[in-house]
Design brief:
The structure is a single chain. The chain contains two helices and two strands, in the order αββα. Strands 1-2 form a two-stranded antiparallel ribbon. The protein is an alpha+beta fold and 80 residues long. The two termini are 23 Å apart. The mean pLDDT is 78.
Length: 80
């Protein structure tokens, strides 16, 4: 969501957050479904993490911005 690469690099240098705010409640390891399947047909499941964001517990502008952005992203997929 940043227009210039320079802005992204500056943000990455200053920002200490490496995951969404909240508590991680689930994590998958991202391993193939079947280790016996040939590599040409094995399906790969990318790593997946789920986070629980509690607005009462995490009161900050970063959490509010994150939740608002997440809501607006989901809103794009609702009935038009």
């Amino acid at each position: 969501y940043m227009r210039k690469k320079k802005t992204l690099l500056r943000h990455m240098a200053k920002c200490t957050e490496r995951h969404p705010p909240g508590d991680q409640i689930y994590r998958s390891d991202g391993q193939p479904e079947s280790k016996l399947a040939s590599s040409a047909f094995a399906t790969f499941n990318p790593p997946l993490s789920m986070f629980e964001v509690d607005g009462q517990k995490n009161k900050s502008t970063i959490v509010a911005t994150f939740v608002r952005s997440l809501f607006n992203t989901g809103k794009m997929f609702w009935a038009a």
